[in-house]
Amino acid sequence: MTRILYALAGADRARPFSPHVWKVALSLAHKGLAYETVPVAFTEIPAIENGATKTVPLLRDGDRLVSDSFAIALYLDETYPDRPSLFGGEGGKALARFVESWAQTVVHTALVRFVVLDIHDCLGPEDRAYFRASREPRFGKSLEAVVEAGVGEIETFAAKLEPLRALLGKQAYFGGAGPSFADYIVFGALQWARIVSQKVILRDGDPVKDWFERCLDLHGGVGRSVTAA
Which conformational region is residue 120 in: left (phi greater than 0), alpha (psi within -120 to 50 degrees), or beta? Predict the structure, then answer.
């Protein structure tokens, strides 16, 4: 069976950076499922699999195509129930949905304000033009102005992770002693920043940084397969 993960990358195709793709990469590793990564640029996405998706990740599992990271995680648990679960039951799915909402509305929103120009700079020329033309109308200002206005976000970012920090005082991962898809959701966001930007967002001694380092080492160190910027 051919299993393919389409992953967003910039000018360097060996450095996939999408936070949502990284959720799936760790999920596949969690399940022990082999796959091939096919890197694609922003402007190449409409052409993959005959226009099957407007965004990545997109997973081809034999004859099946599945898009959206959460839908892919659900699919993997349902299709491969004999392998380690990503959710550990309905309670784990509910927890992951909450973490997904928190990550999207708090973590991603803060991160993008100070890494958006780094993302732009890692792209090829055609993708840079696309990225600027599609993102600047959303922000209502230039990418440079977004980053300038978001300088303070770097200093306050750690405080936004306090819910996770408090949890880590009681257990090693969101789900307890071992990782689950909820961990991969937040890991994906921090991995995104690690790959595209040299900005320091987590300090030594922070339990969240310790957790992130543990996540980088999971499943044979798949998270470290791409070096930091």
Answer: alpha
Q: What string of pLDDT tens digits covers the 229 residues of the chain? A: 689 999 999 999 999 999 999 999 999 999 999 999 999 999 999 999 999 999 999 999 999 999 999 999 999 999 999 999 999 999 999 999 999 999 999 999 999 999 999 999 999 999 999 999 999 999 999 999 999 988 888 889 999 999 999 999 999 999 899 999 999 999 999 999 999 999 999 999 999 999 999 999 999 999 999 999 9
**Cβ–Cβ under 8 Å, residues 53 and 67:** yes
| Second-level CATH architecture of 90-224 | Up-down Bundle (1.20)
Pull the structure tokens for residue 133: 């033309």
Domain spanning 3-79, CATH class? alpha beta
CATH 1.20.1050.10 in the chain is located at 90-224
Enumerate the CATH 3.40.30.10 domain ranges in the chain, comma separated.
3-79
